[in-house]
Design brief:
Layout (H helix, E strand, L loop, with lengths): L4 H10 L9 H19 L4 E5 L2 E4 L9 H16 L5 E3 L3 H13 L1 H4 L2 E3 L3 H9 L10 H9 L6 H5 L3 H7 L3 H10 L17 E11 L2 H21 L2 E12 L14 E11 L2 H15 L6 E9 L2 E2 L10 H21 L38
Parallel strand pairs: 3-4
Antiparallel strand pairs: 1-2, 5-8, 6-7, 6-8, 6-9
Length: 376
């Protein structure tokens, strides 16, 4: 993330450094396997997926004397079933659990990547050993501010009065954080968000783009991808937004960009039909594009999402609606089974691939038959 690959390429080749493109198919599949393993251990309703590589578990069903053994069982089971190394932090609250997990990562040999904070003494030691900037939700900016008040560790933070936290540290957010560090639950488990309220597809262009036709092709491609995601959750979108990002004109390098330019439109009715989304999206490009500028990125966002079975039907156009749903289902099924967008709309272009280049991507061992790992 420090800079573009081409700038570091000579150094990378000189020292034989291994480099890989993003492999989202593999990441997503392995993340799903880990989360499914956790659900099998504690039950689906006790797992909150926080990110692609992190989750909170409610293990109230485990007795205090079994916490250490159960945490070790979680770690060993995930690693055995998925091959993914994990660390486990157990504590009375989410913030303390995050803190315990961080310490487990830092002291892998001593802790075997498992820390259980089940007594006041253990919690106090962990708080004293954690710099304030490492506390979940603080970061460098607030850490610097807290340091000015002689608050350098998580322990120091628990000594502060709630009124002071509310005034100087984000109001209610600061109070919740202080309570959590003190062992009082203030941030509760949340149900997993199955259906997204917004769906976006954005990409950096592999090379500079200066003509409106290419921008329209890119936007059409990203809209088709977003529409596919929308149909997976059986949704329909009412609002479509697009943005384009020009290269900063005062710099010669392509990787410096200017301000993002965006616009949106509200559709007559919510839809998940690709062609009904592409048409207004491409039209929006004409409002944003400026001749003479070089563009480096574009994106599409669908919002105002509702269940597709809640859309008011058209008495005079029911056949067309049913045909479109069948068509979208057929396209999705073929593309999913055959991969690589065998079927696509002409507006997305035929000569240039607007997908991520991923020239250095590792194999998708768990999601492609032709790329299965071979053991000899």
């Amino acid at each position: 993330m420090a800079g573009p690959y081409f700038q570091a390429k000579p150094l990378i080749e000189k020292h034989g450094i291994a480099t890989f493109s993003s492999n989202y198919n593999l990441y997503g599949d392995l993340s799903w396997r880990v989360m499914e393993t956790l659900r099998s251990l504690v039950g689906s309703h006790n797992v909150e997926v926080y990110s692609v590589d992190e989750a909170f578990l409610d293990i109230d069903m485990v007795t205090p004397d079994q916490l250490q053994a159960f945490a070790a069982e979680i770690k060993d089971t995930v690693e055995q079933w998925t091959g993914i190394k994990v660390s486990v932090g157990v504590a009375p609250t989410k913030v303390l659990a995050k803190l315990a997990n961080g310490l487990a990562k830092k002291n892998k040999v001593a802790t075997n990547c498992v820390i259980v904070l089940d007594t006041k003494e253990k919690i106090d030691r962990a708080l004293r050993a954690t710099p304030v900037e490492d506390v979940w939700g603080i970061g460098r900016r607030y850490a610097g501010k807290l340091n000015q008040f002689a608050i350098h560790t998580a322990w120091d933070l628990t000594r502060i009065e709630m009124a002071w936290m509310k005034k100087h540290f984000g109001g209610v957010t600061g109070v919740r954080l202080a309570k959590e560090l003190s062992g009082k639950v203030a941030i509760h488990m949340r149900d997993e968000l199955v259906n997204k309220k917004m769906i976006a597809t954005t990409r950096m262009f592999g090379q500079p783009v200066a003509d409106i036709h290419s921008i329209k092709e890119a936007i059409a491609t990203y809209t088709a991808r977003a529409a596919e995601k929308l149909r997976r959750q059986n949704g329909a979108a009412k609002v479509i937004s697009i943005f384009i990002v020009p290269k900063e004109q005062s710099h010669n390098t392509y990787f410096r960009h200017g301000p993002t330019i965006s616009t949106y439109t509200t559709l007559p009715s919510a839809t998940a039909v690709t062609q009904e989304l592409i048409k207004p999206a491409v039209k929006l490009v004409e409002q944003l594009f400026e001749e003479g500028k070089i563009y480096k990125k574009a994106g599409v966002m669908l919002s105002g999402i509702v269940p597709d079975d809640s859309i008011q039907g058209n008495l005079f156009d029911s056949k067309s609606t049913n045909k479109n749903r069948l068509l979208m289902g057929m396209i999705d099924n073929i593309n999913f089974s055959m991969r690589d967008d065998v079927l696509k709309f002409a507006s997305t272009g035929t000569k240039r691939d607007w997908k991520m280049r991923q020239e250095l991507r590792s194999k998708r061992h768990t999601t492609r038959w032709e790329e299965l790992y071979e053991v000899r």
